[in-house]
Amino acid sequence: MSGFLVAARRILNGYFRVLQVIVTGLMGLMIIPVSLQIFSRYTGIIPRYIWTEEAARFCFIWIILLGATIAVREGTHFEVDVLPTPKNPKGEAIIRLVVYTFMLIFTMVFVLNGYAYALFGYNQTSELTGINMAFIHGVYLLAGMSWFLFLGERVLLAVGVLLGNKEAIAHLKGDHHVAR
């Protein structure tokens, strides 16, 4: 593999780890407002806070979109096999490229519309938490750009298989998420 690809993969691995940490942190953070909601609803110990529902919803949006990004990198999105299973790595790479093409079309919808959505949120503030809505709306753009990066990595691997790169073929054979 060329030096550029090694450096790019190292950067993507670091970015992927950061995303995993953020999602884990958000899951832990979401426990606080949800727990407050439960305790206030079923006990009289604490008052009913209104901001907890909105904070939990915002955490949930981020968890979903960053979790989808993690799934794109790991190749763990669900798939429905409608095409016959290829018998060789090149056939598998062609099938992967078809799937990635459709995923990239969907990704571009998120990137293009996510940008407009983030700009729309920039001029708004949440009434309950006071958070600028660009922080919430911007996650759609972030997810789309991240999907684009991770799909680009997967496309390069599939093209490497088509070109006969032994390292790419070994990676494809070692990918336990690929249907066989």
Structural category: mainly alpha
Question: How many whole angstroms does the radius of gyration measure?
Answer: 20 Å
Reading the helices and strands in chain order gives HHHHH
What best-fitting shape do the alpha-carbon axes yield?
elongated
- How much strand content do the residues show? under 5%
Query: Biggest sheet, in brief?
Result: none
Q: Which assembly state applies to the chains in this document?
A: single chain
Mean pLDDT: 87
Number of helices: 5
Helical amount among residues, as a percent range?
over 70%
Q: Give the terminus-to-terminus CA distance.
A: 26 Å
What's the number of domains?
Answer: 1
Low-confidence stretches: none
Number of strands: 0
Mind sketching the topology for me?
Blueprint: H1 3-42, H2 51-74, H3 89-122, H4 133-162, H5 166-174
Helix pairs in contact: 1-2, 2-4, 3-4, 4-5
